[in-house]
Amino acid sequence: MPLVSEDENPRVPYKHPMPQDALPEIVIPDALAEDDPRMWVQQAEHVFFRPLCLNVSQGYWMNLLKVTKSGVLSRHRHPNAVHGFVLKGRWHYLEHDWEARAGGYVFEPPGETHTLVVPDDVDEMITYFQVNGVMYYVDPDGNHLGYEDVFTKIDMCRAHFEKVGLGADYVKTFIR
Known about the structure:
- Helices cover about 10% and strands about 40% of the residues.
- The chain is built from one helix and twelve strands; from the N terminus they run ββββββββββββα.
- The strands form two sheets. A six-stranded antiparallel β-sheet has the order 1-2-3-10-5-8, with helices on one face.
- The longest helix is centred in the C-terminal third of the chain and has 14 residues, at about 150-165.
């Protein structure tokens, strides 16, 4: 990125309106929301997600995944790339010999099938994920068991936010 020229004041904001059809930004000051459990959508026992962006036009979602007990999560396949950044704890996939630890980044290439495991000595794991497309749940032989996409995530959020008193429309905060 080029530096501002010396004869220009760098603290002057852009003077023109944003594009008429541009969507508003999403700003979440406390994405971890440790003090407000209503922000965490329960997906299974001890498994929660915190929506950050639910992009319906491009079919991806960004969320924090929180697991509050060691164990094995569902085996799944990704037809598109996934990006992850570990914020707390650690985890690994049964199918690989590496371990994702706090502060670590993971790129999962399209076609990857794996089984996420939170080790026995980890009380809580939180990872930021950007999932593009779907998560396709499979058995050990690759037989289809179910799926998630941005629309099923929105449905889960809508039901959760209604249940905890924020109202079903609260999910619109995260939809773009």
